[in-house]
Amino acid sequence: NAGVTQTPKFRILKIGQSMTLQCTQDMNHNYMYWYRQDPGMGLKLIYYSVGAGITDKGEVPNGYNVSRSTTEDFPLRLELAAPSQTSVYFCASSSPAGRQKPNEKLFFGSGTQLSVL
Amino acid sequence: RKEVEQDPGPFNVPEGATVAFNCTYSNSASQSFFWYRQDCRKEPKLLMSVYSSGNEDGRFTAQLNRASQYISLLIRDSKLSDSATYLCVVGPPRGYSTLTFGKGTMLLVSP
Predict the structure, then answer these.
(1) For chain A, which terminus, N or C, has the lower number of CB atoms within 10 Å?
(2) Do A108 and B98 touch (CB under 8 A)?
(3) Which of A40, A102, A108 sits opposite B92 (nearest CB)?
(4) How far is it, in rounded angstroms, from Cα B110 to Cα B79?
(5) Chains A, B: CB contacts under 8 A, how many?
(6) pLDDT per residue over A9-60, tens digit each?
(7) ∠ CA A108-B19-A41 to the nearest 5 degrees?
């Protein structure tokens, strides 16, 4: 199994450009997440999804959009790139043990290093 | 008080040393606790969950103190390969929700 696959690994954008970060998982996980990690900072949740067709905002959603048309894919869209969006982006997935239990183990992709200049 | 707070370090220790990290959390109703490990420029990976009674996994021991709202990670007989950033992660009070990550504590193990 490939696990969680993110593309691209690196990208440089100009201010105002748009792009989509791709994320796909082959573990049939219901829950998927997008995090960003700035240097010396913790992971900040951008958006998450509890299943196909359902998405929710996380802590820092402004400037981003997501969709979840299938269980496997959870792309992250930047519409008008800004320097403040320079960061490392991680996609993750998980499958909680039970309805009332929070996620125990997140499986992360290898990350996308994005620079907006 | 920050949601999840950790000493950023770095903790510099020689091989074979014992080192401990603490992490404090602000929400007393939090129900789940974890330690993740993150190598430089890599994705985080689950190291171990933290249970109320404390738990051990080889050289790693995790403890939870609900009264004081902190969790700890003890590493015995440190190896060079233990050099990494250790992220304290706290789960929500109930139901489905998302995890909160600390900024991490950097550990450097030297020969």
Answers:
(1) N
(2) no
(3) A102
(4) 8
(5) 57
(6) 999 999 999 999 999 999 888 889 999 999 878 899 999 998 899 999 999 9
(7) 40
**Distance, CA of B63 to CA of B49 (rounded, Å):** 10
d(CA A111, CA A36): 9
Strands B11-14 and B105-110 turn out to be parallel
Q: CA B78 to CA A91: how far, in whole Å?
A: 30
Angstrom distance (rounded) from CA B101 to CA A42: 6
Dist CA A15 CA A93 (whole Å): 30
B40's enclosing H/E stretch is none
Q: A15 is written with which tokens?
A: 């201010």
Integer Cα distance of B96 and A30 in angstroms: 12
C-alpha to C-alpha distance for A39 and A4, rounded to whole angstroms: 23
Residue B65 token pair: 């103190």
Nearest one of B90, B65, B78 to B6, comparing CA atoms: B90
- The string of pLDDT tens digits covering residues B52-100 is 888 999 999 999 999 999 999 999 999 999 999 999 999 877 655 688 8
Residue A114 corresponds to which tokens in the numbers above?
């994005």
